[in-house]
Every structure is written in C-alpha cells, then in structure tokens.
Q: What sequence folds into this?
C-alpha cells in the first residue's frame, strides 16, 4: 500500500470515517514546508467548517487520537494542520522496495485502462520551412505520447504532414521553369522551399505567376497524372529527409498520412455539413457559423472557398471524423501552436454537426488543442531558417567542444575516451540540451534559446541531468572495483536515516505523482521539474555523505541501494523526455 494510503487509513480510523472517504483524505494530504515539521500534513479547515469548530482545536484533537504504527512514528498538531512524522526506515524500505521490484515501471499506473488517445504532433509541411514550432511540437508531442503510454493509455501517434495546399502550385510552377533533378535528390525539402520562395517572389512583381500557380494546383486537385506524379516524388523525397531526423531523435509515428490522405473524404463530409443545414453559403463560399465554448461568436469556419477549393479546416473536420471512426478515441489532442482560432472553429463546427445529426456522443468535446509558447533566439550557422537537422548537428558539435574544455580542466572527471564513444556521447548530450530546453519551462511560456546556457553541465539543463546520472553510475563502478555488491538491490536498512537520505527517499516517492500531473496538465515540464529536484536531492545527499570510503558496511549497503534507486528513477524520467541516460560523460 502506498504511504499516503496508509496514512489516510490511520486518519480515517481516528475520525471514524467509512472506507469510501479514504481517497478524499489521501488527496487532501500535503507536504509540510520543511522536514522539521514532519513528512505529511493533513489540513483541518474543511473538517472544521463541517463541525463548526476552530481548525486548530480539530487538529489538536485529531492528532491526539492517532496512534503510532509500523509506518507512522507520531502525529503533532501545528496550528490548523496535523503533521505526521513517518518511521523513516520503514518508509524507505517501502519506497526502495517498490523501485527495486520493477525499476522501469516504477511510477507507472494503469490510469488509461487501454483507452485510446490520438496525438497529432510534429506535422511539418512539404515545401515550407520546418520551423522551430515544429521542433517544439515534435518534442512535446513525443513526450506526451510516452507519458500517456506509461499510464496505460493506447496512444496513436499521428504525423499529419502538410502535403497539400496552394503552395504546391507555386512549387510545380517553379519546377517546370527552373527544376534541377540533381538538386532535388540532394537537398529535397530545402530545395523545394527554395523553389517555392523563388516563385512566390516572382509572383509579387508578376501577378500572372499566381494565376498559373493556381491553375497548376487545380490540375493537381483534379488528378492530372503528370502533376500528381511530380507531387508524389516531392512528398516521398521530403518524407525521407524528415525520417532521418526522426530516427536520429528516436521518435516514431503510427501514421504519416497527411492532409492529402483525406482528400477522398472531404467532399462527403462537406455534404454532411450541408445536409444537416449546419453549413451556409456566404459570398460564394461555404461556411459554418460557430461560437466558442463560452458562447462567444467566432469567425465563421470556411469549408469551401469561392473558387471551389476545399480548406485546411474542411480537411481537419474530415480527418477528425475519420479518426473517431477508426480509433474510438477518448481524447484527440493536437500539439500545435498559434492555431487556437482554427481549432476552436473546427471543434465547434464538429459539435454543431453532431448535434444536428442527433448523436448522443460527446466526442467533439474530447478534441483538444495543446498549444505552446514562442521560441526566440534560435539560429544556426546556416542562418535564421531553422532546419532541425542543422540544429542537431550544431548541438552535437558544440557539446563536443564543451566536453573538450571540461576534460582539459578536469581530466579525472572527463577522461579520454575512444573516438566512437566520444561521438555517441556528443550526439546524446547535444540532443539532451535541445530536448530538455523545450520542457524546462511550462509549455505556454515564451522562451529564449541560447546555445551556451542549454549546454551547461550544471544548472537546469539536460546535460546536467545526464551528468548526475553518470556520477551515480560512477559510484557503482567504484563499488565494483572494490568488490562490493553493485546491484543496488535490497540491503538492510539502518535504524535511522540522515536528513539528506530521507529527503531523497521522499523525492523518489513522488515520481508517480509527477508523471500523473504531467499527463493531466499535458505538461512535460512537470517531469523536467521533478528530475531537477531529484538531481538536487541526490547532490545534497552525496555532498554530505560518503557512500563507499569510510562508511560502515551496513551504511554502504543501504546507500548503494538508495543511489541505485535514484539512478533508476532518473533514467526512467529521462526516458519519458526522450533523453538518453549516459553511464559515462
Ligand atoms: N502542418 C501544419 C502547420 O505546419 C500543422 C498541422 C497540425 N495538425 C492538424 N491536424 N491541423 O502549420
């Protein structure tokens, strides 16, 4: 039984509560501001209101009725709170036992019970630049996918590639005029963007170009085989480029079907809107008047433009309906920034359609746009336009230089390593710097990117956490060299725990709760914050106590177990963030 459940049961018994009230008590438990004030606190305000008595009096009364047991050492009233002091050794046994029992799954829980969550993330565009927003979406989306899976949801990862739209008219126009097969094979997506930009520039001085581009896109929409073959080739080459990057990051998707894949569904969906009288004609276009959840009127959602072309919104409606039929999702989440209005329109329009068609289902309410803030200051050697591949290269090279400097200053901590090993480490550290940066603040905050600070080996960075992990592994290398047990497995617990040991145990206890907060708020930052706290608790412990040299054998055994548990949880949290743990740095 988790410690909080045990404590809730003791409080419930003292209050004479029935078992069904225990979860409520458990949820009310908080952490006192310092260890001196106890390990858990129960606030008595609500109880005091119900009983019409002063909270402090209730607390004093309740505290006196709690008896010590195997886990609870004592209960003390402090103002309106009952502070509970745990038997540190017994509680440590429980936490460390749970981690050792299943280090990789510790903190997970079957909250989802196999329900399906569709996650729409990354979704770069073909023939438009891959910008930093796509990197953040890729990263936050992949984190959420891992977090939901960890909690027992079945996650469908959708990469809804932007492979349709009028930009293709410009690209095809440019291709017919300047196309160079060699450049396309070499640089695929970057070359397509160049073509697009060149044609677009020309259209600014020569309006005829826009006309021709529109005409070419129309031919594509009508299925002209030559144009369709070109489009197919553009798509495939671009996707192959994206795939290399995803592979490098260890991110995969269940589907790469983009906007074009719903083309064959769009007409029927538009017809449904029309038949249900949800869509109306407006100046030659077909629109759905919509309002947001608070009933405020939004700009009407356009299904079809006056020139007959279907819209991005129409495709998203068709795609969402298709997803629901295919997966019966409990949530359909779009990790996309700065399209709040678009998604509000789409969700509202789907709601109107469901109502008009008389469905019982609440499913449009299960659609959700997870947005995020803006990133400033990101540029690479090649300039402002951000290609993920370049960013990863640069991160790797810079990580390598930082390590070289560290190694020159402190060769003991950063020994010489074979070239292959160094490459692997630099790649992992560079990625850790980027991936952690993205989640080092809450997702809605705007953040400023700075190469030097994200690559620091100390502070709130990914490399810092990797370094902590490597330090923990170093303790086990040292133990092995001295012939000590190195599994980090169960060891006898000393009768008392030092404050720093105890503080570390308490942090380890909180991992599952952090994962659940991350899932509930769609906020991977909860995990990064947790890991930072864990690393600090470990450092506070390790700076104060020796694990091996000069410690009693009993103490060494317990501390190795404690370090082993911290290492397992740190690795597990990093895994949820897509960051590789390193044994050596
Ligand atoms: N490709 C779009 C863009 O870059 C993002 C697509 C997001 N997903 C969606 N279902 N609309 O802006």
A:
């Amino acid at each position: 039984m988790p410690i909080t459940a045990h404590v809730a049961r003791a409080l419930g018994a003292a209050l004479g509560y029935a078992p069904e009230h225990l979860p409520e008590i458990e949820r009310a438990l908080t952490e006192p501001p310092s260890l001196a004030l106890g390990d858990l606190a129960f606030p008595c305000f609500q109880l005091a209101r119900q009983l019409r008595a002063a909270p402090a009096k209730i607390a004093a009364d309740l505290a006196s009725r709690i008896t010590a047991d195997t886990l609870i050492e004592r209960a003390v009233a402090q103002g309106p709170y009952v502070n509970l002091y745990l038997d540190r050794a017994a509680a440590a046994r429980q936490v460390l036992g749970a981690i050792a029992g299943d280090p990789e799954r510790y903190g997970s829980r079957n909250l989802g019970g196999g329900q399906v969550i569709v996650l729409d993330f990354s979704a770069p565009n073909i023939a438009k630049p891959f910008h930093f927003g796509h990197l953040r979406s890729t990263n936050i989306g992949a984190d959420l996918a891992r977090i939901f899976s960890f909690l027992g949801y079945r996650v469908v990862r959708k990469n809804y590639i932007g492979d349709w739209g009028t930009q293709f008219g410009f690209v095809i126009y440019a291709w017919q005029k300047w196309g160079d097969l060699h450049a396309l094979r070499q640089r695929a997506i970057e070359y397509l963007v160049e073509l697009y930009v060149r044609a677009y520039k020309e259209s600014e001085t020569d309006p005829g170009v826009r006309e021709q581009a529109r005409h070419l896109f129309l031919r594509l929409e009508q299925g002209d085989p030559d144009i369709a073959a070109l489009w197919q080739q553009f798509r495939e080459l671009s996707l192959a480029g994206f795939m290399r990057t995803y592979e490098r990051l260890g991110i995969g998707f269940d589907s790469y079907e983009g906007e074009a894949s719903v083309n064959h569904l769009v007409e029927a969906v538009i017809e449904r809107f029309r038949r249900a009288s949800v869509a109306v004609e407006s100046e030659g276009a077909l629109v759905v008047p919509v309002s947001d959840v608070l009933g405020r009127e939004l700009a009407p959602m356009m299904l079809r433009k006056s020139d007959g072309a279907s819209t991005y919104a129409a495709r998203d409606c068709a795609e969402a309906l298709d997803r629901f039929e295919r997966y019966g999702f409990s949530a359909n989440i779009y990790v996309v920034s700065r399209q709040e209005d678009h998604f509000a329109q789409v969700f509202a329009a789907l709601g109107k359609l469901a109502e008009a068609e008389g469905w019982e289902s609440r499913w449009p309410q299960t659609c959700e746009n997870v947005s995020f803030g803006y990133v400033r200051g990101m540029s690479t050697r090649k300039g402002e336009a951000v290609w993920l591949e370049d960013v990863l290269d640069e991160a790797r090279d810079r990580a390598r230089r930082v390590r070289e400097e560290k190694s020159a200053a402190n060769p003991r901590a950063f020994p010489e390593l074979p070239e292959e090993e160094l490459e692997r480490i630099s790649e992992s550290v560079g990625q850790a710097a980027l991936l952690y940066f993205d989640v080092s603040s809450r997702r809605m905050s705007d953040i400023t990117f700075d190469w030097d600070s994200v690559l620091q080996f100390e502070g709130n960075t990914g490399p810092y956490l990797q370094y902590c992990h490597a330090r923990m592994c170093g303790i086990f290398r040292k133990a092995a060299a001295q012939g000590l047990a190195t599994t980090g497995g169960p060891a006898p617990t000393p009768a008392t725990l030092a404050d720093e040991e105890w503080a570390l145990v308490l942090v380890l206890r909180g991992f599952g709760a952090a994962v659940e907060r991350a899932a509930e708020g769609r906020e991977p930052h909860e995990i990064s914050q947790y890991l930072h706290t864990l690393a600090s608790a470990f450092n506070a412990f390790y700076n104060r106590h020796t694990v091996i040299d000069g410690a009693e054998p009993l103490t060494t055994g317990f501390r190795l177990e404690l370090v082993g548990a911290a290492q397992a949880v740190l690795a597990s949290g990093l895994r949820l963030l897509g960051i590789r743990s390193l044994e050596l740095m």
